[in-house]
Amino acid sequence: MKCKRRITAAAVVLLLVCGSAWAQDAIKIGVVGPRTGPAAATGAAFEEGIKLATEYVNSKGGVMGKKLEIVFEDTAGAPDKAASGFERLVTRDKVVMVLGESHSSSALAEIEVANRMKIPFIVVEAWADEITSKNYRYVFRAGPSNSGVVNKTIAKWVVHEKFKKAFIVAENTDWGIGIGKLTENAIAKAGVPSESMITERNSQDHYVELTKIKAFKPDVVLAYIYGVGLHYFVAQAGETGVSSKAVTLDGAGPPSLWPDYWKNVGDYGDLECFVSSMHEKVELTDLAKYYREAYTKAFGKAPTDYKSRSIFDGILIAADAVSRAKATDADKLVDALEPGKSSTNIAEAPGGVSSLLIHFKGAGRETMPDVFRPGPCLQDAIENPFGEGRQTGSPQNAMKNNILFLSAAGRLLKKKGSAACLPFQS
Question: When you count CB atoms within 10 A of the terminal residue's CB, does the N or C end of the chain come out lower?
């Protein structure tokens, strides 16, 4: 019996040693994003994408024969916390690269740390143009930019739907102020008059603002509010009668997909459109199909929040860069990430879909057309999909098979619940 106990104890020690060695032998990549705060739902979507991406990469043999490990640092949407969290990933966790983020103000703080510490940083869901227009050597974008979203999608939608007057409501952040100003300029060039205002991102009371909006009598309200504040705005727009006269657009997208959306907005949610860079029914590649099936199996629901696919894409791009560099040296990783050098590009990943504008139908169901046709601004998206600065993941290749959709809500809203998402056609 003693001998058996000694053997068992030795086996446990051996397992602990081997497990520790395996952990030390892992390639660590950091992720930054809001796990708490007003956009905590984005952190939950990131966690879903992280789970699927690490399982996918490790099932293929990992990275350079080692296990891929992701370390997720909460930024809470606060620039100071984002900067310190980024630095901890590098100094404490010894990550070789960082990716993620969905708050532009946080990303703008993080790129300074990345540049100072010489650590590659791939921004996947923070849209401010300034993030990459600085052209820092270690900073890349693998997702949308404010200018790309406005000029290639939203402004063209406003013109196409023949809206006569627009009101722009932008939160008081780098993303909100930036995208609001870009929208104002873009629709002004198209001859669409507008007024605008800045609102507090976390505000729960928009009644005074909505009184001013209602007096302007717009037929479209472009709401750039990222967080649960968007829910309050949509609900109160319905209560004050603004949304019965004007189409409301959620210019960020994810807040309209969060679990509490319908509880917070009720039937007024049917009177809203939102921006998304993906749709569960649009699958351009085999990997997109894999992602949907893996997501549904893992979480028991359809993958509607595109942030989970964005981080999935980013992790695959990062893992591919490490594998091809055959090293974790920062400068070699930067060389591997440079545009045109990535072999695992967005065309091969599931999230390579341009911005969509989707209108709710009935009790919270988004609809997509049966036949997908390219819109007239597709070539522009191919040439400059993400705006200024350096991007990674060869997005140009992905856009060649891409489709832009815009909502027909401007024509169909008069009959509640009848609006469908249709291809953007000139």
Answer: N
Q: pTM of the prediction? A: 0.79
- Residue among 141, 122, 138 nearest 330 (CA): 138
CA dist., res. 143 & res. 139, Å (int): 13
Domain spanning 147-276+354-386+398-423, CATH architecture: 3-Layer(aba) Sandwich (3.40)
First to last CA, the chain: 83
- DSSP character for 339? T
- Mean pLDDT in residue range 30-48: 95
Q: Report, at the CATH architecture level, how domain 27-144+283-337 is classified.
A: 3-Layer(aba) Sandwich (3.40)
* pLDDT higher than 60, residue 20: no
What tens digit of pLDDT does each residue of 346-380 get?
334 444 344 455 544 443 333 322 222 223 222 23
**Which structure tokens are listed for 302?**
């359809």
Q: Which residues contact 171 (CB under 8 A, 6 or more apart)?
A: 177, 198, 199, 200, 201, 224, 225, 226, 227, 229
Start-end of CATH 3.40.50.2300 domains in the chain? 27-144+283-337, 147-276+354-386+398-423
Please answer whether residues 253 and 179 qualify as being in contact, where contact means their C-beta atoms are separated by less than 8 angstroms.
no
The tokens for 195 are 């007024």
- Give the tokens for residue 264: 């917070």
**pLDDT tens-digit map of 42-68:** 999 999 999 999 999 999 999 999 999
Q: Are 403 and 372 in contact (CB under 8 A)?
A: yes
Please tell me whether residue 31 adopts helix, strand or coil conformation: strand
Is residue 397 classed exposed, middle or buried when 0-12, 13-18 and 19+ CB atoms within 10 A define those classes? Answer: middle
Q: How many C-beta neighbours within 10 Å does residue 141 have?
A: 29
162 close to 135: Cβ distance less than 8 angstroms:
no
Taking only the tens place, the pLDDT of each residue in 282-299 is 666 788 888 889 999 999
Burial class (CB in 10 A: 0-12, 13-18, 19+), 155: buried
